[in-house]
């Protein structure tokens, strides 16, 4: 419940409302999308200390505070009289995102469910994958009745009612203490994570996820402008975005079987190959609408499974030790790339002459990132296992 609402209101409402905000206020599209980029950058920077805190104390305080801050920031965004206030509102919204979106939820599940974590992660992302399907059309309909300011005010009310109490009351399960408890535990854990971070496999993983995230989320947030460029109405463009979210859910259902029978390298190549190919198709295919919807849904399948692959990237390679800290380090450049995504789509469209040309560049970035990720997944496992074992001992 809290993930679908938080993603829907703090993230997916924005690409629907951004063109309307620009038209209503006179602020340039680049300035409006840059405010959202600031939010994602703040989320990335806050991710490392958030992960460290969850490793030690669990998710309850972080997620409750994050959802409360999200309520306040949506109100500030809604009533902002000037662009600087709008940007400041989004900056603090980014801190809220760090406390309520996938990274803290994934850390909570990894800490609580251990061997059953893949099933739990799949369940969570199946539901949260509906965020764009539910909230993109609802946001478009709310704008028609309330305008963008009224829509964000109602979003603040929904976030307050549907997330703050749940985080405060439900996330009370005892938090497991670290297995490797010694008198020098903080130093030992820091040495262990530093050793992993210096590993070539971790660097390939980080570089690949960063490139693919930039391509994937720039394409996602530029999808509505691309559809408008293709001649679709704003409502139809919102539905194309929403149906892509629905296919994220389908992809996550398929991934459970894929994870059981396919190697990490095969899963990685398949999933991120879908992202690359669908982005290229959107770049070169002008229509008809059904084909554009199919390409968007294919991208959604890849994006949905990519979320699970990122969530399990650390545990697939190094186990659960130091998950919060390692995920925060891994997530920092990935989220910074995601922060560049809103502006990247608009800038690429301006530089290359159209959103279609911009999508072609994004497809090339996704292809390079996919090669890095496959290389990361194929790097010698025994060596990584020996590293982890020696550090644990």
Explain this structure to me?
This protein is an all-alpha fold and 393 residues long. The protein contains 18 helices and no strands.
**Which structural class fits the helix and strand makeup?**
mainly alpha
What is the residue-mean pLDDT, rounded to a whole number?
81
Determine the N-to-C terminus distance: 40 Å
Q: How do the SSEs run, as a string of H and E? A: HHHHHHHHHHHHHHHHHH
- Total beta strands: 0
Number of helices: 18
Largest sheet: none
Morphology = globular
Which spans of ≥5 residues are poorly predicted at pLDDT below 50? 380-393
Radius of gyration: 20 Å
The percent of residues in helical segments reads over 70%
Strand content: under 5%
Key attributes of the depicted protein:
393 residues; globular; disordered C terminus
């Amino acid at each position: 419940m809290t993930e679908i609402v938080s993603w829907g209101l703090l993230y997916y409402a924005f690409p629907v409302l951004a063109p309307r905000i620009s038209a209503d206020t006179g602020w340039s599209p680049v300035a409006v999308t840059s405010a959202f980029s600031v939010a994602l950058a703040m989320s990335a920077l806050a991710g490392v200390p958030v992960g460290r805190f969850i490793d030690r104390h669990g998710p309850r305080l972080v997620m409750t505070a994050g959802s409360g801050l999200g309520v306040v920031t949506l109100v500030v965004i809604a009533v902002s009289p000037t662009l600087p206030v709008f940007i400041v509102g989004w900056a603090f919204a980014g801190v809220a995102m760090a406390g309520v979106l996938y990274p803290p939820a994934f850390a909570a599940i990894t800490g609580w469910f251990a061997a059953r974590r893949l099933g739990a992660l799949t369940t969570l992302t199946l539901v949260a994958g509906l965020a764009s399907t539910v909230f993109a059309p609802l946001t478009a309909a709310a704008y028609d009745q309330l305008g963008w300011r009224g829509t964000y005010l109602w979003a603040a009310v929904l976030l307050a009612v549907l997330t703050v109490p749940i985080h405060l009351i439900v996330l009370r399960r005892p938090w497991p203490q670290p297995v490797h408890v010694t008198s020098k535990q903080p130093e030992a854990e820091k040495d262990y994570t530093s050793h992993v971070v210096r590993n070539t496999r971790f660097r390939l993983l980080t570089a690949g996820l960063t490139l693919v995230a930039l391509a994937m989320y720039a394409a996602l947030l530029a999808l509505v402008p691309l559809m408008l460029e293709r001649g679709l109405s704003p409502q139809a463009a919102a539905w194309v975005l929403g149906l892509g979210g629905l296919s994220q859910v389908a992809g996550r259902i398929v991934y459970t079987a894929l994870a059981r029978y396919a190697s990490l390298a095969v899963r990685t190549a398949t999933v991120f190959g879908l992202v690359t190919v669908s982005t290229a198709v959107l770049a070169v295919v002008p229509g008809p609408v059904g084909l554009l919807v199919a390409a968007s849904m294919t991208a959604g399948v890849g994006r949905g499974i990519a979320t699970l692959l990122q969530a399990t990237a650390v545990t697939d390679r190094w186990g659960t030790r130091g998950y919060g800290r390692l995920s925060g380090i891994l997530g920092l450049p990935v989220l910074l790339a995601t922060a560049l995504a809103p502006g990247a789509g608009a800038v690429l469209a301006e530089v290359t002459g159209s959103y279609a040309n911009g999508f072609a560049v994004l497809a090339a970035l996704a292809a390079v990132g996919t090669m890095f990720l496959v290389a990361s997944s194929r790097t010698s496992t025994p060596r990584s296992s020996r590293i982890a074992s020696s550090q644990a001992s």
